[in-house]
Specification:
single chain, 122 residues, mainly alpha, 2 domains, rod-shaped
Length: 122
């Protein structure tokens, strides 16, 4: 037989109160630990949602900037086309003016006895 070591604790006899204290300690500690784990999980999920929200905000800003940029470029192109059309309409000779000038040139060529150039418009 072994001799009891004085440094080792002697096991206390189990009583209902002792068992109840042990169960409460294990259960309450487990509940607190579980509650802390759940809290950390929810905090992590909240942080991820905040990061996603920030990314959506920055993405929305990028799209808004690009749309504004495209809109201004389209407006500039439309203005340029409008200016070109206006310039063409103001500086282009009308068909009547061209026919009148063609008739005059033809008469001068006949008078000077110059061979007429080929004309496509009649």
């Amino acid at each position: 037989m072994k001799k009891p070591n004085s440094k080792q604790k002697q096991a206390a006899p189990l009583t209902m109160e002792g068992v109840t204290k042990m169960v409460k300690k294990v259960v309450f500690d487990s509940q607190e630990e579980l509650a802390m784990m759940v809290k950390r999980g929810f905090d992590a999920v909240d942080q991820r949602f905040e990061e996603v929200d920030k990314k959506f905000v920055s993405l929305e800003k990028k799209f808004d900037d690009k749309i504004d940029n495209m809109e201004s470029r389209f407006n500039q192109k439309i203005d340029g086309l409008t200016n070109r059309i206006d310039d063409l309409s103001l500086n282009r000779a009308t068909r009547e003016q061209f026919l009148l000038l063609d008739h005059r040139v033809g008469r001068i060529e006949q008078h000077l006895k110059i061979e007429p150039k080929i004309r496509t418009v009649k």
